[in-house]
Amino acid sequence: MITQTPRPEEILAKVFGFESFRGLQGEVCHHLIGGGEALVLMPTGGGKSLCYQLPALALEGVALVVSPLIALMRDQVEALKELGVAAGYLNSSLEPSEARQVEEDFLAGRLKLLYIAPERLFTDRFFPLLRQVRLSLFAIDEAHCVSKWGHDFRPEYLKLERLMAQFPDVPKIALTATADPATQAEIQARLGLGGAQVFISSFDRPNLFYRIELKQNPKRRLLDFIQGEHAGQSGIVYCLSRKKTEETAEWLEREGVKAVPYHAGLDQRVRNHHQDRFGKEEGLVVCATVAFGMGIDKPDIRFVAHLDLPKNLEAFYQETGRAGRDGLPADCLLLYGVNDFVTQERFFDNPDAAPEFRAAELSRRQAFWGFLESSACRREGLLGYFGESYQGPCGRCDRCLEPIASLPESQTLAQKALSNVFRTGQRYGLGHLSQVLVGVQNPKLRQAGHERISTFGIGKELNADGWKAVYRQLLAQGLVGVDPEKGGLFLKGPAKEVLKGERPVSLNAARERSKDRPDRPERAPRKGPAPFTRDDSGELFEQLRQLRAEIAGQKDLPHYIIFNDKSLWEMAEYRPQSLVELGRIYGVGEVKLEHYGDDFLGVIRAFA
After folding, report:
1. For residue 267, what are the contacts with CB-CB under 8 A and spacing of at least 6?
2. Considering 204, 472, 530, 601, which has the largest number of Cβ atoms within 10 A of its Cβ?
3. Which of 96, 90, 77 is nearest to 119 (CA)?
4. Are 451 and 441 in contact (CB under 8 A)?
5. Angle separating helix axes 218-229 and 242-254, nearest 10 degrees
6. CB of 512 within 8 A of CB of 493?
7. Which residues contact 255 (CB under 8 A, 6 or more apart)?
8. pLDDT in tens, 30-44
């Protein structure tokens, strides 16, 4: 197994196969090895796990990693073993005999890292064992779970205060991908990390392309997206309901796309089987509720698509962040309509919650809606939500590639739209309201008497789609609300100021869309996970991918644990001809070079 090496940079190269640290990784590792404590905020795919895995190899003793995610524990332990690192995990998935063996290895000092679920940590059987071993550090992964204000609160995480109090001299690190200032403060308070150094990386994921569109034949749009840009690649499709995940997966299968559903209502064995397939098969699409996501360590997810709105911007960031963890290009597609706003009001507003909590949740939803309707660069809005300044255009989102214009006379248009809501009785939806403004003659309007009101036909400067866009923006700006039961719009407090001309309003023009092909930036298809400079590199990449699949199948491991796509991409692009040259490829450490080097060199040489 790996012997301890004092210099982090040497461990990084020999064990992990990386030439240099990414972002703040090096600072965090040196700080922790020096005995410091840390709170680390890094985006999904930013390399958080290395911030405790590497120090665990540099320090005497065993590192205890607390994680709520069974699948992640298994994947990370398997990946560490492939690197030659002694690691194990304890959770409910193990048989009693397997758990006893891990405990014996832990007590005998045969492990460098032990992953453990918080429920298992505090059992009468395990907790006393901590006094019998030399502990190198405590790593609390998914640390936002300790916060009641966070997006994934886990009550068992509150017990971690006891762990920190009883072992004050053991270095500690807490890690999470997203935490606003209030959540950060609660993490520090509950985990006794008041004196810890806080490391906050940029939340930007520059390899992700963000695209947000109005719903228009969403299943057909999804199929076009997958087959046109991501054929044969792995991805996640998020749906709000369990039924929709199953229907979408069945439909994709009929259309020739490998797909499976995943939600909490499925039998545990089925869920495990589908998650296992997703890890080990290439080109599988999982149609899932948010029950699927946390704990996915798969780096080569090339797209994440949302057929329904996530709960808020934090959830959107977390869920899209599961794409492209290897740093190679990946796409994020979100489809939405005004009915999604209605659904959010119905599903996510808890009347029994404390007033301050309801207000905070409403504020988060409002911020999300504003983000959807904004004309600004998507990165600018997304990173701004997390308090990070970003000056667009980024060139990697729909808004940057297809800018939308501001509407002239926005104030007048907003006043017409708001007055129309009032004149029609504050109980009608976008379609009806837009028809009134355009002056549509139909039985429904006549029956409601809306052909005789003052706002009928006063909005002929826009078509019905244009007025719908106006109403969506007024909704996003908090000037109108939506009835969660009937879907009708009503005026909210600030609307009176707009009607009186005391509050300025800015509106964006609606983008014209074809019914057959929704308007969107065109993306050229590519032969691999990222563009190649050589015409035949895509072919070599596929041959390397086939070899990887064969080895992974023989070892019953996810393919990315052998080598991830970025490693294969560099092999296909740079074509090393010796073990020394192969050892310089991303992710090729000493143990993997010894185990697989000759096989992969053979494919590269034969291709040349």
Report:
1. none
2. 472
3. 90
4. yes
5. 50
6. no
7. 223, 227
8. 999 999 999 999 887
* Cβ atoms of residues 158 and 92 within 8 Å: no
Sign of CA dihedral 256, 261, 267, 268: positive
Contacts of 486 (CB under 8 A, 6+ apart): 427
Measure the CA angle with vertex 390, ends 387 and 395; round to 5°: 140
- The residue among 303, 413, 316, 304 whose CA lies nearest residue 371 is 316
Q: Is the peptide bond before 43 cis (omega within 30 degrees of 0)?
A: no
Q: Which has the higher per-residue pLDDT, 345 or 417?
A: 417
CA-based radius of gyration for the chain: 27
CB 250 within 8 A of CB 264: no
Question: Is residue 380 very low, low, confident or very high in pLDDT (cuts 50, 70, 90)?
Answer: very high
Q: What pLDDT shows up at residue 65? A: 96
Report whether 510 contacts 466 (CB < 8 A): yes
- Tokens 């929709």 appear where? 244
pLDDT digits 0-9 by tens, 569-581: 999 999 999 999 9
Q: In whole angstroms, how far apart are CA 307 and each of 239, 288, 332?
A: 5, 10, 11
Do 35 and 169 contact (CB within 8 A), yes or no?
A: no
Res. 80: pLDDT tops 90:
yes
Query: What tens digit of pLDDT does each residue of 553-596 get?
Result: 999 999 999 999 999 999 999 999 999 999 999 999 999 999 99
Give the confidence band of 526 by pLDDT, cuts at 50, 70, 90.
low
> What pLDDT is recorded for position 463?
93
Contact 345, 478 (CB under 8 A): no
DSSP string for 234-295 = EEEEE-SSHHHHHHHHHHHHHTT--EEEE-TTS-HHHHHHHHHHHHHSTT-EEEE-TTSBTB
* Three-state secondary-structure class, residue 505: coil
pLDDT of residue 348: 72
For 44, 89, 206, 208, 311, the CA distances from 395, given in Å and listed in that order, are 21, 42, 10, 11, 26
